[in-house]
Each structure stands twice: as structure tokens, then as C-alpha cells.
């Protein structure tokens, strides 16, 4: 019997075993490596061209330093600030507020999402309030939160949590709303408890949607932290940005903006890496950026 | 066909209940256009270790019957009785195989196979050993830790049969298990299923559109008519066991296939 089975066509391995020298898989891997390398070169070239154009245009049109600064000026402003030790504390505060707020907001959003979808009655009772709060622009609450919690870190963490709560909540809800009838039948056949159904089928099915919410939340977290700092704070990159504006230090403002862009990119990448690991079974297009 | 209804087997001597009995089952679905009768007056017994195949065209309520047998659906009228007790919910003695293997993509093949034991809170170490052995037996050695998506349809379906066997069922319900496979793989799977059923002594209720598959595998073929699903005829298949490729060449095999096929030729627009 095992013999008949062994002689079954192995749909995947067949082509590879027939050509012992260079397998198609190895060829494809090499081709991928090549494109990856040439992509990197191209990216570096585009970046340099971008910097060159920025520098050249600012100098060519002799733009007032009050309005804009070329990259060389931005860089020297950064070096001046860095040697004075100006940035690190503020950077740390903003990143801390963002990460803390995101973790609290995302956890609550996920928790409420699960509660609302699992306990239908609770959901119906609290849903109108969630909708009401969601349609409110969260930054408009900032003055009130700062009034309650002061100019310190706490008020910013609360605001970031409030802002990141909703995208995660909404996506958790829509992810858990999708039910694969066959998988649920399978769970019923195995007599899985409600918790087991949730853990083995519904949560993994919802995971891609939940991560989509987290991807939105991470960008909102940075926005939330900065705007909250604008409204009232003692430390943070938002404070530094306002100070630079008051001092008519345009190059200094651009330094902060570049920093924010870098923070945003790092945070976004971190979430994507976690997403890929957590939802390893999801088939993605190979060239997804 | 109505004569066949009257020929229902008499209650067996000694009064031991059959493994599975469908007792005058009727089922209606509520649809936008009113009530739709899917099954009507279905009475059928399955004995221990018996292999029963139900053939019928699409929409004859075969899958509904299977869901009722599995305890996934309560019939509008009548009842399914397993070994003397009415089936009101899924039970471990009744396993089910779906048309798609329904492997969870976030688990490896072996994790999928041991999932029922994990859910039931059984001995996982023993389950893993057993699963590994059985997977090797059905030609999935080397694929234990593969993602289900990396397997072909036939391999996935074999893994899902192994998964159903993990609960040591006494009755296996199979809903078009090989419908999505190519003809060659399907034939091999049939031979393999015949062997599993013969060796394990598990009773099987197989739903299929394939007449030759039904006759090859079953001890008894039940022909159903569509809308509402009714039993047109029960045909005994006295072909020798074990069944193998040679069974397909027997004149009786062809004769029984022909007898089943006549039902579909008399209907319009089917097969």
C-alpha cells in the first residue's frame, strides 16, 4: 500500500528532482538576490538625486532661510543641536508617549473589539457610545485632557491611547465578523468550546484585519503625540518644533520633521515585521513593499 | 421507485439497534421565496462496519442529510438516532470529512491532525506519535511539518482523513470527499479509502455524485431524487472484498453501475 502511495505524483518536488544541476528554485533565488541588489543601488541613487535637487533648487532660487533651508543647512543645524545635546531627551519623551499610548490604545481596542463581538448584548449596549466618541475628533479633547492631567507625559499617553483605540477596535470587529462556515463546522464536529473556537479559528482568521488596524494606529500614534505636545507640554519634539518656529529657525524645524519621518518609518516597519511573523500563513505578493 | 420504498429492511432480529438510523426525516429550509423542502421521508439504517454511499444530483439534499447525521443541523421532522440515542449535537463517535479538507492554514499538517485530540484535552504526546505513524502510512512522510497550503488537494484530503480517525469514530460521514480531485488521484483515494474502511471496521456514510465511486466503495448504494430529496432505491452491492483495481473489471460492477445510472437517465437534464 505504501508503495502505491509513494508512486503518487509529488506535485511540487517533481521538476526540481529531475534536474540535478541547477534547480529552478535556486535560479529564482539568485534572480531575486540580483534584483534586490540592483533595487538597493537604484534607491540610493534616487535618494542622492533627491538631496541634490533640494540643495540645488534652494540655492538656485536663492530661497530666504526664513522660508526653507537646503539639506546642507539642515544637516549642520542637526550637528549643532546634537552637540548641545538638544534632541535626545525630547526625542525619548515623544517616542515613549507614542509607544506607551499605542500599546495601551491598541490593547484596549483589541479587548473591546473582542468583548463587543463575543458578547453581543454588551456590544449593543456600549456601541452607540463608541460610535459617538469615534466621530469626535480626538485632538479636540486634548485641551480637556491636559487640563486634567497636566503638561506632563501622562496626558499625551492618554491622548495617543484614545486616538489609536478606534482603528484597532474597528478592525478587530470587522475581522471577527468574518466567519468561515466550514471551519466553524469543523470546530463543532470536534466539540470545541467557545474559547477554543475563538483561539483556533476566529482569532487567527481575524489577525490580518487586526494588523491592518495596527498599521493605521501606529501612524496616528505619532500624529497624536505631536499634536498633543502642541496643545501643551514641557518636553517632546512637538515642543522643540514650536520653539524652532518661534526662533525663526527654519533649518531647526526641518531637523525635527526629518526625525519624525524617521520615527514614523521605524515604527511602521516594526509593526510590519511583527505582522509578518504573527500571520506567517498569509500569502503575500513577493514584491509587496 | 415507490415499490423500493416499501421494501425497507425489516427490524432486525434480537432488537439490537442499527449504528445509525434515520427515522422519517423531513427538512425544510426557510428561503426568501418561502419554505423549501430539502429532504422528505428519509428512512435509512446503517449497520456496524457497513459502507453506505448516497448518490444523487446536485441539490437533492445529500449534504443536508449528512449535516443532520453529524448533529450540526436539527431536522424539521423525524430524527437521526445513533446507536439507540438521538443525535442532537456532534459526538466523538461520529467523524466527518468535508469536501475541502478544511485544514487550518496557521497550523502545520501534523498540528491540524492532532487538533481534535488537543480540543478534547487528550494525551498529546501519544496523539503526535499516532498521527506521525498514520501520516507515514498514507504517504505523507516528510510532510508532517509542512504548511497545508504546500500540499496537493489529494494529500490534504488524506491528512484530513487521518485527522478524522484520530477520534476513533465508529461512523465516518464523508461529504463529496474526493469531488475536488482529479480523476487519477480520485481513483487512488478510492482504493485507499476501501482499504481503510475494510481494515478499521468503521462504518461509512459517503455522499457522492460519482456512480462508479459509490458502487466501488459501498455495501449499499442509496439513490436519491432531488427537490425534495427522497430515497428512490437502495441497491445492495454484493461485490467481493477486499476491493481493488480488479473490482472495476468485474461484470457485476458494471451491471450495478448501470442499474444506478438508470435513475438519472429517467430524470431530465441530469448527468
What would your notes on this structure say?
With 289 residues, chain A is mainly α. Chain A is built from twelve helices and no strands. Chain A folds into two domains: 25-62; 78-287, MetI-like (MetI-like fold). In chain A, helix 5 packs antiparallel against helix 6 (120-135), helix 5 packs across helix 11 (237-246) and helix 11 runs antiparallel to helix 12. Chain A starts with a helix and ends in an 11-residue tail after the last helix. The relative contact order of chain A is 0.11. Chain B is α/β, with parallel strands linked by helices. Chain B folds into two domains: 20-93 and 169-264, 3-Layer(aba) Sandwich (Rossmann fold); 103-168, no CATH class. Helices cover 35% and strands 24% of the residues of chain B. Chain B has helices at 2-6, 62-70, 109-120, 124-137, 153-165, 183-200, 211-217, 251-266, and strands at residues 20-31, 34-46, 51-55, 77-82, 85-86, 94-97, 171-175, 203-208, 220-225, 230-236. In chain B, the strands form two sheets. In chain B, strands 6-7-8-3-9-10 form a six-stranded mixed β-sheet, with helices on both faces. Chain B has a four-stranded antiparallel β-sheet with strand order 2-1-4-5, with helices on one face. In chain B, a hairpin with a 2-residue loop joins strand 4 (77-82) and strand 5 (85-86). In chain B, helix 3 (109-120) runs antiparallel to helix 4. Chain B is globular, with a radius of gyration of 19 Å. Residues 1-10 of chain B have low confidence and may be disordered. The interface between A and B is medium-sized, with 27 and 34 residues.
